């Protein structure tokens, strides 16, 4: 495996930037009164999940490699568990945000009843409980996601059950979630454009142009985010199978994973 110190020197700045950006986003959203609504609460939760993900990389994974600490490597499955917990919480919150926007556009009357701040907070609590329970059962009881010194990145334990959990419980499941996110966001953009056509008679050319530009920007952002999420999932599972170069494996696994969560805040308006 490539020199772990060199890997840390690449990974640590990205982790630091991700931690700072996401903790700052979380703090700002919590403090700003303009975010005191369902979408703001969900955005804060995603910022928190991404901040946790980057922080675990920064404070555990990087020191573990830099110090070559055997005790930390022995308990690296705890690091893996926390990373998967934060990652899946981020993906599920991403899905909830997309659903939030979709319903606000297509079912505005239902949205007011279903997405109050109180109900959103209850939903987030349930999301945390579900995610913590499933992650504990899958990644602590049945299988470990740990750092393998031989290959130099986090991987599932070598057993048929862990291979099954890694493929179906992690890879395909999260690919499914990301696919739903893309579909919901595309439908949201279509709904906004459909609504804007009904309002065209009362809008100026400048307002129409601004809305059209915003729609294109949001659609582009949606497709790019979906592509990046999907690419990260594919590279983490596929690259180590077909490549042996240490740096290719590193950039396709650990680096891709932490970079995806560097600053994953959503655009506020579709």
TrEMBL record:
Compartmental location: Membrane
GO cellular component: membrane
Domain G-protein coupled receptors family 1 profile residues, every copy: 18-239
Coiled coil: none
S-adenosyl-L-methionine recorded as keyword: no
Pfam families per record: 7TM_GPCR_Srx (PF10328)
Keyword Transmembrane part of the UniProt annotation: yes
PROSITE patterns recorded: G_PROTEIN_RECEP_F1_2 (PS50262)
Coarse class of the protein's main subcellular location: membrane
Keywords, in A-Z order: Membrane, Transmembrane, Transmembrane helix
InterPro entries named in the record: 7TM_GPCR_serpentine_rcpt_Srx, GPCR_Rhodpsn_7TM
Record Gene3D superfamilies: Rhodopsin 7-helix transmembrane proteins
Residue stretches spanning the membrane: 7-27, 79-102, 122-139, 175-192, 218-239
Name of the featured protein: G-protein coupled receptors family 1 profile domain-containing protein
Organism: Caenorhabditis briggsae
Lineage: Eukaryota, Metazoa, Ecdysozoa, Nematoda, Chromadorea
């Amino acid at each position: 495996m490539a020199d772990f110190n060199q890997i840390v020197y690449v990974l640590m700045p990205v982790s630091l930037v991700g931690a700072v950006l996401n903790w700052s986003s979380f703090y700002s959203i919590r403090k700003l009164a303009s975010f005191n609504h369902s979408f703001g609460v969900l955005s804060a939760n995603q910022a928190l999940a991404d901040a946790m993900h980057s922080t675990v990389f920064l404070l555990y994974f990087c020191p573990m490699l830099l110090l070559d600490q055997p005790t930390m490597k022995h308990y690296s499955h705890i690091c893996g568990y926390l990373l998967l917990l934060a990652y899946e919480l981020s993906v599920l919150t991403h899905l909830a945000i997309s659903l939030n926007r979709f319903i606000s556009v297509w079912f505005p009357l239902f949205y007011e009843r279903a997405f109050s701040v109180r109900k959103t907070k209850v939903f987030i609590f349930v999301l945390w409980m579900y995610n913590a329970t499933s992650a504990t059962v899958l990644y602590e009881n049945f299988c470990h996601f740990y750092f393998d010194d031989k290959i130099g990145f986090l991987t599932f334990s070598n057993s048929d059950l862990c291979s099954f959990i890694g493929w179906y419980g992690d890879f395909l499941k999260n690919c499914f979630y990301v696919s739903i996110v893309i579909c919901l966001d595309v439908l949201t953009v279509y709904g906004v454009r459909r609504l804007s056509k009904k309002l065209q008679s009362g809008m100026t050319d400048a307002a129409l142009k601004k809305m059209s530009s915003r729609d294109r920007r949001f659609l582009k952002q949606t497709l790019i985010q979906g592509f990046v999420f999907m690419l990260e999932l594919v590279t983490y599972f596929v690259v180590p199978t077909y490549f042996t170069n240490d740096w290719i494996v590193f950039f396709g696994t650990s680096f891709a994973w932490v970079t995806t969560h560097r600053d994953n805040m959503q655009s506020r308006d579709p």
